[in-house]
Here is the input.
Amino acid sequence: MVYPAFYNGPVNYFARLIREQVIVLEQFDSYTKQTYRNRCRIMGPNGVITLSIPVKKKRGIRNHLRDIRIDYDTPWNKIHWRSMVASYAASPFFEYMMDDLVGFYEDKYEFLLDLNQQLLEKILQLMGLNIPVKCTISFSEITGETDPRHFIHPKLDQAIVDSDFHPIAYHQVFSDRLGFQANLSILDLLFNEGPGAHIILQKSLRI
Here is the structure.
């Protein structure tokens, strides 16, 4: 199976990744706006927050993900980290894991793919998982509606398009006021459940 390279992807994405012996990321797909490739959803004090990475695209040509550069004209990295601190400083595992993640928001990555891949590798490590991550050497055709590159999308209702995903409720920092919010970024699960996050991921798929 080939997977899209997401930025701190959602829980149903990681529920599939952790079942693989080797994770293969597609780097030759055409970059499109408003996907999880450059955005993630976290739980803030007032509800769900979408964090987006601005990127540079060449107009009039097909832009492969591997060629997409990150735009630092605005300090998005500092904004994202401040949002995470505001959202998760009170979570059980944020302080434990913050030193492993803050560097991704202090360094300036040139390419989006590099940031996404290295974040993925670090998140797997924080869950105690040793799964190699590599990229495709050529474009792999999308196999149909069951291909994760097709249906794991922030604009689609995952309860409908991903019937194999069964969200497992866990404690979230603001769930006493706002209720449980399913299928947020893996960081929400990680900061709240720590290394045991992979157990919830394992239980989240019916297949």
